[in-house]
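name: query_chain
kind: protein
chains: 1
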Amino acid sequence: MERNYYSATSTFVPSSELDWRTAFHEAGHAAAIHLGNQQKQLPPVFFEIHVKRPLNGYADFFAKVVDGNLIQNLPIAVVESFTDLADTQQHACQRAYEADVVNLLVGPLAEAKYVSIRDDEVFNINLINFNALHNYGGYSDLEKALNYLEHFIASEVQRDEKIQELLLQAFKFIDNRRHWKCILNLAHYILDSQQEIISCDEAISIFDRCLAANAPFRSNQYPFLFG
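structure:
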């Protein structure tokens, strides 16, 4: 899960602003993978955040979430024979791929929410659709989400309905104030830490501290980000 940095239709974004957008994008993925799966009582899944930082003013800041997919932990035979599975097995597989799709969508949605708060604009589900997330580094995320749905749902009409359903779930996840605080805290950590790899345990510790304290750190320093 990683942000797309370049596209034929992308507008210029200053590097300092792109750093912020990237941090929120990847923090959104990580929060959804841990907190979202936990909320749905799905098994925990390993992930890491890989970060490349400018060295002596050269190159660009870059971050991506590595792993974190439930489907990749299922046997290939189970995934490929989805339609032949018993109802209970189909249900388990469906819960896994739907969670993966939501976790993919949360990344660009978190970036979109950061931009809307920064610009003092309204952010609600009526102003966001699937294709709009291309504007928030979501090309690869959306492509992967569509690949999931095309693999498991044959009907185009049903796929479109499922996309809208899962997009709403992703929106509700980041619209939750507690989840947004966790995303905010991890985004700051991604930017401030000098580590090249932020482990799963480190990210979870940040979430746990944030939820336990019920207040994000540096709140006076970045009040506009709370939405």
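note: The helical segments are 15-39, 76-80, 87-118, 139-152, 156-175, 177-192, 200-213.
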